[in-house]
Design goal:
By secondary structure, this protein is mainly alpha-helical. The longest helix has 49 residues.
């Protein structure tokens, strides 16, 4: 006779720890559900504070820690599982849970920003979460597939920290709150787009992985296939809608990179004879910002703007900032 350690009888909530769970454990009932709610909200709250402070400090370690602590990824996987298995009640329950969680993290980020002096400029950690691109979508799709594979095959628990780190969920939401408090509404919108991108990507790719793993609607009868198609179609539509602004932002970034690359030679030809050093070079659509330093104020700025417009094939607005440099020569 073997001793009963009590572990087998312990209720499992697969949304919090997928390593030893099966797909059905994403939908706990009774004691497992109620007990896990306390753990979920405590961990989410702590992760939100860690992320907010880490973003202000520009601390990569703190931000990664927040990603690992946060249980939000498991709740999002539960949305995908509910869509595929046709659990209508769980679909709404998990969607509401994720929505309330997002608002809670945003509120914590806002509160932290209230007690910390406003930043003159965003830290690199904050700024990195305000400009999502198609590359972020690719990362979310791959990491979401890994998380779903763990949930469906109830194996590979060592991979979960990597999944949590790869998919940025809590830091973008904390960034939204911080940027809202500081009146940076465009940046807040960009961070919110990053979160919704990751959310939609995880739901879609997790639904596909669950289907390939054999998951099917739990309800029997003629409604079985309809529920499956309806749930999967909903996830696909959400991902397509999210991808539209990402494609637009990526196209803008590519256009800016092309303009910067083409214009670099023009700027070099203009700056070298005047002994000017290019300190900063930024392209945002048709607006070009150039910071130069040298012993004499730059000349021929209008001619430079005309040359840049000709090279890029469209009108440009050029802004040149000059930093004077004084050089002293002596012999001793």
């Amino acid at each position: 006779m073997t001793a009963d350690t009590g572990l087998a009888a312990r209720p499992i909530d697969g949304r919090l720890s997928l390593g030893a769970a099966e797909l059905d454990d994403l939908f706990p009932t009774g004691a497992a559900y109620h007990e896990s709610l306390v753990t979920y909200w405590v961990l989410l709250t702590l992760a939100a504070f860690v992320a907010a402070f880490g973003l202000f400090q520009d601390s990569v370690a703190s931000i990664i820690g927040a990603m690992v602590i946060a249980p939000l990824g498991g709740a999002i996987l539960a949305i995908a599982g509910a869509l595929v298995t046709g659990r209508v009640a769980w679909q709404w329950r998990t969607i509401v849970q994720v929505a309330v969680s997002a608002l809670w993290v945003i509120a914590i980020g806002f509160a932290v920003a209230v007690v910390i002096p406003d930043l003159l400029v965003l830290t690199p950690a904050l700024e990195a979460r305000t400009e999502p691109t198609l590359l972020d979508l690719g990362v979310a799709l791959a990491a979401g597939a890994a998380g779903a594979f763990v949930a469906a095959r109830h194996t590979g628990s060592d991979a979960l920290p990597g999944v949590a780190i790869a998919v940025s969920l809590v830091p973008p939401l904390a960034t939204v709150g911080i940027c809202l408090e500081q009146g940076r509404y465009d940046d807040a919108g960009g961070a919110l787009l990053l979160f919704t991108t990751n959310l939609a990507a995880i739901i879609v790719v997790a639904s596909i992985v669950f289907l390939l793993s054999g998951a099917r609607p739990v309800a029997e009868g003629v409604d079985r296939g309809r529920r499956l198609r309806r749930g999967f179609a909903t996830a696909i539509v959400a991902l397509v809608l999210i991808s539209i602004p990402l494609v637009w932002r990526s196209a803008q970034n590519i256009a800016a990179d092309v303009t910067a690359l083409n214009g670099a030679s023009v700027v070099r030809v203009w700056a070298t004879p005047q002994v000017l050093e290019v300190i900063a070079w930024n392209v945002d659509g048709n607006h070009i910002q150039l910071v130069v330093a040298g012993p004499n104020a730059p000349e021929g700025v209008d001619a430079l703007a005309t040359a840049l417009a000709a090279k890029s094939g469209h009108p440009v607005e050029l802004e040149v900032t000059y930093q004077p440099v004084t050089r002293y020569h002596s012999a001793g």
